[in-house]
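User: Reviewer 2 asked us to show a designed sequence for the structure in our supplementary figure. I'm pasting the structure tokens here. Could you produce the per-position amino acids so we can include them in the response letter?
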């Protein structure tokens, strides 16, 4: 949770995901993340709570490629693989597919928050201009009830993600690595990606919602044009990136997509986040789970699960960069 989110809306009735043969029929019509979820639902366990409540702006529109069935959860996956788009070769890169295929590509990883933010309240509460509005520089982020902080979580996932992407040949930059007292502010986080002329930026987070709200969602920039914010050139590419990241994450972690945001798509669109509004390069956020839900916490606090999370995010990025 890196931001002041929208106020919760009244709860919606529980959703009942489609099952069985229907997944084939809908496969070509729904976003990849949802297809993966349906597949997962068909083959996985089904004891997930889905007392869905607040649903923010949803976004399912552009279809994307049908995803394969999820891999065996019991096996750790190795880094540097793209592996989901039907074995597409890499027309946009001079390097061969496989190891090193991301030579020349720049990925900026934005680990949400900073472990030191809570010691600098006046600094992180300072308002910065996000084009459409003024918002706090940053927040402390959330934590589990046992005190595992979002800032610690995001750095861990980001380190794992960096390792995988570097193996694939990418140049990887961080917005912060716990190597500064606080921050950066959200406007600077965007600026770091812009100045790096990043091919893709992913901001890593975990949410701090009510218990019972579960699952991941990827936040895509909505179209804004106000002040210093003009996301119009990156809306489509960011959606492509976000759908692939959601699909990869779903496949490696088994989901579930959020039951409280995004209507089961695992995708959300927002126009109130400075880190997205001020970006001039393809960028998404991922909220990997809810640090206030015990089922999600059991995953978020597992190193093995975080490795799967990083692997899934990396697969989405690799797929996006290889076109
Ligand atoms: Zn956050």
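Assistant: Here is a per-position design you can include in the supplement:
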């Amino acid at each position: 949770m890196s931001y002041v989110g929208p106020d919760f809306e009244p709860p919606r009735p529980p959703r009942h995901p489609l099952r069985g043969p229907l997944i084939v029929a809908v496969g070509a019509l729904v976003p990849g993340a949802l297809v993966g979820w349906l597949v997962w639902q068909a083959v996985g366990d089904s004891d997930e709570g889905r007392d869905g409540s607040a649903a923010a702006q949803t976004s399912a529109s552009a279809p994307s490629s049908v995803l394969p069935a999820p891999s065996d959860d019991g096996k750790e996956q190795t880094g540097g693989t793209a592996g989901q788009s039907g074995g597409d070769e890499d027309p946009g890169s001079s390097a061969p597919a496989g190891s090193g295929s991301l030579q020349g590509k720049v990925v900026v990883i934005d680990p949400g928050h900073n472990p030191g933010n809570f010691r600098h309240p006046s600094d992180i509460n300072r308002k910065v201009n996000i084009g459409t509005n003024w918002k706090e520089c940053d927040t402390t982020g959330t934590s589990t009830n046992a005190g595992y902080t979002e800032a610690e979580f995001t750095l861990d996932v980001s380190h794992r993600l960096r390792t995988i992407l570097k193996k694939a040949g990418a140049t990887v930059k961080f917005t912060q690595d716990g190597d500064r007292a606080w921050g950066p502010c959200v406007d600077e986080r965007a600026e770091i990606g812009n100045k790096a002329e990043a091919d893709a930026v992913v901001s890593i987070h975990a949410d701090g919602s009510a218990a019972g709200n579960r699952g991941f969602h990827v936040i895509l920039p909505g179209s804004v044009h106000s002040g210093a914010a003009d996301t119009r050139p990156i809306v489509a590419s960011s959606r492509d990136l976000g759908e692939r990241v959601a699909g990869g994450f779903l496949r490696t972690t088994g989901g579930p997509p959020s039951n409280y945001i995004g209507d089961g798509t695992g995708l959300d669109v927002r126009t109130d986040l400075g880190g997205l509004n001020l970006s001039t390069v393809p960028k998404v956020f991922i909220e990997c789970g809810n640090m206030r839900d015990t089922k999600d916490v059991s995953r978020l606090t597992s190193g093995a699960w975080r490795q799967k999370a990083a692997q899934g995010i990396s697969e989405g990025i690799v797929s996006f960069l290889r076109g």
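For the response letter, you might also mention the following. The pocket of zinc ion is lined by residues 1-2, 112-113, 141, 150, 205 (CB under 6 Å). The two ends are 30 Å apart (CA to CA).
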